[in-house]
Amino acid sequence: MMTVDVYGRPDSLEEAFDLLQGEGNVAVIGGGAYLRLPQRHFDVLVDLSRLELDYIRETPETVEIGAYTTLRSLETSELLTREFDGLLPKSVSHVVGVQMRNIVTVGGTVGGRYGFSDLLTALVALGGMVHLYRRGEVPIDVYLEEPKGEKDIVEKIVLPKRPLQGSFGHVRLSEKDFAILNVAVVRDENGCRIAVGSRPAPAKLAREAMETLKGQPLTVELAEQAGRTAAGELRFGGNLSGSSAYRQALCKTLVRRGLMEVNQ
Ligand SMILES: Cc1cc2nc3c(=O)[nH]c(=O)nc-3n(C[C@H](O)[C@H](O)[C@H](O)COP(=O)(O)OP(=O)(O)OC[C@H]3O[C@@H](n4cnc5c(N)ncnc54)[C@H](O)[C@@H]3O)c2cc1C
Question: In the chain, which residues have pLDDT < 70?
Fold first, then answer.
């Protein structure tokens, strides 16, 4: 059971940020799906529901996704089905079930930096920027690798619009389980970006593998080589879902498949 002394529903981000800096166990609550899993007590919970952060909108150069947007809204968005080769809807369509996707938020996923996340892998491959209220914009792959610092609020995700091909691959023991490994590949005019998540650590770019692809036509042999390089450069851990050796083997295959998919 979760217990809370003060449940704050601020009317501005400034007020929300000030509340978050309070003494004791203070946190932002998104959908609350993960926050309430363990039994714990909060001195203050900061609810962002009044801040109008539930949006998916476009500017001429970007798509912006507000922190309070649910995964179900991503999945059913016409804009996101059209943009980025539909990679974001594809990446979240396996997350538990529709009821859960109607609850969980983009801000909670990014703020929680969950290793098992499917969405984070797609956002890293797309080169997304996290917009934090106090700190401003940070590339999402950098944000995921940093130790948690000053408490801040994820306000929105900003994605650069451009023509691209995207693929999302994952292996699960059962349909609604956490992915044992997930891989997102994005190919645009600058080359390929490969993100590997659920290692079980959070998504990371396979930079050496990306480098091997530069300036060369994408062939089956090159895709295989990139798969081997990605499996060699990244670190994998073991847990109940799979051993590190199994994850490494999956990485090789999923990267190769992802690259061939964006090559069509
Ligand atoms: C049983 C279960 C299975 C799941 N399986 C998967 C899966 O297979 N794949 C997958 O991708 N996801 C999965 N999810 C995760 C889910 O998609 C969300 O990432 C997760 O639930 C957090 O979202 P939330 O909105 O519920 O956040 P909350 O639980 O409310 O918060 C999570 C964390 O983020 C912080 N936070 C919330 N909002 C913000 C903000 N705006 N700024 C800064 N920090 C913030 C909170 O303080 C907390 O630390 C699963 C979740 C559950 C409960």
Answer: none
